[in-house]
Description:
Helix 4 links the parallel strand 4 and strand 5. The protein folds into two domains: 2-133, Rossmann fold; 142-205, Winged helix-like DNA-binding domain superfamily/Winged helix DNA-binding domain (Arc Repressor Mutant, subunit A, Orthogonal Bundle), CATH 1.10.10.10. It is an alpha/beta fold. It has helices spanning 11-21, 36-43, 62-72, 86-95, 109-119, 127-134, 151-161, 166-173, 177-190, 196-205; strands at residues 2-7, 27-33, 50-53, 77-82, 100-103. It has a five-stranded parallel β-sheet with strand order 2-1-3-4-5, with helices on both faces. Helix 6 (127-134) packs across helix 10 (196-205), helix 7 (151-161) packs across helix 10 (196-205) and helix 8 packs across helix 9 (177-190).
Amino acid sequence: MIKVLIADNHPIVRLGIKQVLESSSEIEVIADVSTTGELFEVLEKVTPDVVILEMDIPEINGIATLRKLKQDFPDVKPLMYSGQSEDVYALSTIRSGAFGYLSKRADLDYIITAVKKVSEGNMFITNELAQRLAFDEGTQKPRRFFRRLSSREVEVLKLLASGKRNKEVAEGLNLNEKTVSTYKARLMKKLNVDNLVDLLQQAKALELY
């Protein structure tokens, strides 16, 4: 069972999130709070797997709260849930320790998906946001943020995305198969995914195929 704490200053929002999450038999909402003071007070008593954190929650701003969570409660995985612009805040919140960023304008179904993914220690952002973050709108050059891929890693990812198996990738790049497996593992780590399907989704977001 995934234990979730909701931190949002709007009672209706907290209730709505709780109802959506508890429609899943795998998720239990163990607490909800309206301020960061309440959040840290409750975290002294309970240990959620995931904290759904509103960017504009009162008392301490979202970024500072993320840093404090990372320092004082490193096992808790924060998922930002905000009405603020994704393009402006997603990157800064991820750098500050969030495991994901979900807009309040996103489909409700995304909440359950995001909580499950974050609970496993994986990064969650929507494909639409990944696309916008991946490329600088002015130059159309790839942004690096947490996708610091070497040119060889990009080559391997392109071939995997085109449907090539490890052996075919190895032959195409004149590498041994074990080296390709190492590159694949490194790509999954850098792109915060744990399976080939999600890896290929990231490749699509980077417009590699």
